[in-house]
Amino acid sequence: MEQELIELEDIKETKRKRKEMKSEKSEEPETKKEQSIYDLPGVGAATAEKLMAVGYTDLMSIAVASPGELIEATGMGDAVAKKLIAIARSNLEMGFESGEELLKRREKVIRIKTGSKALNTLLGGGFETGAIVECFGEFGSGKTQIGHALAVTVQTVEKDAVAVYIDTENTFRPDRIIQLAKGAGLDPDQVLKNIKVARAYNSDHQMLLAEKVEDLIKKQGLNVKLVVVDSLTAHFRAEFIGRGTLAERQQKLNRHLHVLAKLADRYNFCVYVTNQVMAKPDMFFGDPTQAIGGHIVAHASTFRVYLRKGKKGTRVAKLIDSPNQPEGEAGFYVDESGIKDVE
Q1: How far apart are CA 190 and CA 197, in angstroms?
Q2: How far apart are CA 75 and CA 179, in angstroms?
Q3: pLDDT (tens digit, 9 = 90+) per residue, 123-175?
Q4: Tally of domains within the chain
Q5: Same domain for 150 and 25
Q6: Is 110 found in the same domain as 60?
Q7: Which residues contact 38 (CB under 8 A, 6 or more apart)?
Q8: Can you name the residues that pair with 197 across neighbouring β-strands?
Q9: 123 and 223, same domain (yes or no)
Q10: How would you class 271 by CB atoms within 10 Å of its CB: exposed for 0-12, middle for 13-18, buried for 19 or more?
């Protein structure tokens, strides 16, 4: 009899523990399964392959796309494209976030330093990832030299960091990279291996190369931390001539910058673009130098820096626009080993 009572108590205890475990499991938040584009209703294998072939590999890329982009990529109808975007957005958390959460995300931002402390301080510690930094100035003001220097120094911020250099004016020089690498105490051969260079022959090619950066990250697994476009406006300026083509040029340039900004934010790399200038003939007082691209480039750039020649071979960088830094100037000079402070 006692044995039966003991067994009965054991059964009750086992049931109680199972009940507790069940209640604990129910209290635990369920981990949401990460959905792919194949999970979207109405997307078959053929449509999914078309989307993935042009870079729409996950729900986020579809959620932030416009209906026109999806129609162009797959040939689907307008109503289907809008429905697809709406479903993708509903499956993602795309609402507001607190300032505290944003501050935590900002901790991932990396600042790529140059050899000039004054220039680094001007930009709040260096060239910021997740942002577009535009440097404009006349020829010989140091725009390309900064691009070369950043392609070298970015490799000191993280292991296997890669720089992508989109060259539109045939300005990239491997021998200059070797000089800068030696000046920074790095292995020149390894530095050159970690710089991916592509020559853009027209504006369409330039835009295509910018989109291909995502393939380097996703398909080749490269740790891209810098994208240099030298220069941003050369092809656009040459191909779109006269006031009649201005609207088309600006729209195309805006789309190009939008792609660069989206990728920079998504993959946390810095976009450094150089820009050409023109002289305003109706400017009688002050500096007549003005950047090409108008308000489109000005609004798209997170930081804008005006470079000009100083005394005795020095260069002066003036911060024109920044979301968090005051306007100011910094002097520097460029020698064989890199960018240095003016003594």
Answers
A1: 14
A2: 50
A3: 999 999 999 999 999 999 999 999 999 999 999 999 899 999 999 999 999 99
A4: 2
A5: no
A6: no
A7: 45, 48
A8: 165
A9: yes
A10: buried
CB contact at 8 A, 257 and 293:
no
Residue 197 identity (one-letter amino acid): V
Question: pTM, whole model, 2 decimals?
Answer: 0.79
Spatial contact of 311 and 333, defined as CB atoms under 8 Å apart: no
In this predicted model, what pLDDT tens digit does every residue of 260-305 receive, in sequence order? 999 999 999 999 999 999 887 666 566 778 898 989 999 999 999 9
Burial per residue of 120-139, b for 16 or more beta-carbon CB atoms within 10 angstroms, e otherwise: bebbbebbbbbbbbbbbbee
Question: In Å, what is the CA distance from 38 to each residue of 33, 41, 53?
Answer: 13, 8, 14
Element (H, E) at 289: strand 289-291
Q: Is the domain of 300 the same as that of 330?
A: yes
Residue 276 CA: distances (Å) to CA of 144, 268, 294? 11, 26, 11
Residue 64 CA, distance from chain mean position: 15
Containing domain of residue 153, as a range?
A: 103-341
Other CB atoms within 10 Å distance of the CB of residue 39: 14
Q: Identify whether residues 78 and 116 lie together within a single domain.
A: no
What kind and span of H or E run contains 141? none
Residue 90: both structure tokens together:
């509903």
Q: Do both 66 and 176 map to the same domain?
A: no
Boundary residue ending a domain (95, 112, 140):
95
Query: What is the model's pLDDT at position 54?
Result: 75
* Residue 34: predicted pLDDT: 56
For residues 64 and 86, membership in a common domain is answered with yes
CATH number at residue 294: 3.40.50.300
In whole angstroms, what is the distance from residue 90 CA to residue 56 CA? 17
Domain C-terminal end among 66, 95, 124: 95
Could you tell me if 207 and 260 lie in one domain? yes
